[in-house]
Amino acid sequence: MPVLHRSLWMVLPVVAMCGTSVAFGHGEDADHEHPPADAAAVTDAVRVGKGEATYESVPNWCQLPEGRSQLGATHGGIVVDNEGLIYFSMDSGENGILVYTPEGEPVKGIAPGMTGIHGMTLREEDGEEFIYAAHLAGKRVVKLTLDGEIVWSIDGAPTESGKYDDPNQYNPTSVAVAPNGAIFVADGYGTQWIHQFDADREYVRSFGGPGSEPGKFQTCHGIAIDARDGEPKLLVADRENRRLQHFDLEGNFLAVITTGLRRPCSVSIRGDKVAIAELAGRVAVIDSTNKVISVLGDNPDEGQRANFGVPPAQWKEAVFTAPHGVSYDADGNLYVMDWNRSGRISRLNHVQD
Q1: pLDDT tens for residues 282-295?
Q2: Rounded-to-integer distance, Cα 69 and Cα 217, Å
Q3: Which of 49, 61, 120, 320 has the greatest CB tally within 10 Å of its CB?
């Protein structure tokens, strides 16, 4: 998909109003101090990051669906399909997932009645793309078509694991699928075990468990398959231990690869880079050595970090409050979901100098 021309965004601030956009100049009549009634800000694009992980914001990228004064609570994930359409999950409204164009225009809602989807991953199988989702509200994992139809589900806690005294302890937050079809499910809001199923959805094993030592978790919030070095591994965003960990596809602990993060929630991998949504107010990017090479949208206001209730009137362009979901597109641009009561999705264009 084409990248929006940088000079245009630097000249024309934009305000989003219920699915439309209006450009404002910089003349005497432009009001830069008071946002309109829907609280969308009149702002310039802002450049963030450094080096090869430099980005520029797209002001008010997410246009509101018709009839809404705000997007609605966001507490989930984002994926981008091969055509460049953006899918993000919702905690309110009629549909569990909203679909948007790269230009920030709403296309449709899918997965009706399935609000409360948390982590998602997108996988192509025999030329067709599917969304695998941890449906937190339903205590299950689902495989969906891109139209939101359920292909199958793994319902409830894997009691055969022996990890549950009460099935209600199970609160899945993320799912990843290995090249061989093996399915990994993180019980990040529950018992801190990662459960593995085979391609036929038969239970295989559980690994991890609660703790702070290597191989253990304090909120195994997000997971993904990391094949940057050619050997697929499971990458775990161990949120409250503030680190990333690697496991092999048999559940064996390999290494703690990055530490000192700000409550990592989810990751997106492109090439040798990993973008990390950090709940405490920023997005970090690591390279092939797993070192942080750039930070994006770092919020200097500690009161806004990991704060679900920050209202739109207090948002600042390219400054995040509680990054929860993140996804690259094919061109290296980033989409970021803040955990927010009103709902906030941002686009950052990759700057290619």
Answers
A1: 999 999 999 999 99
A2: 39
A3: 320
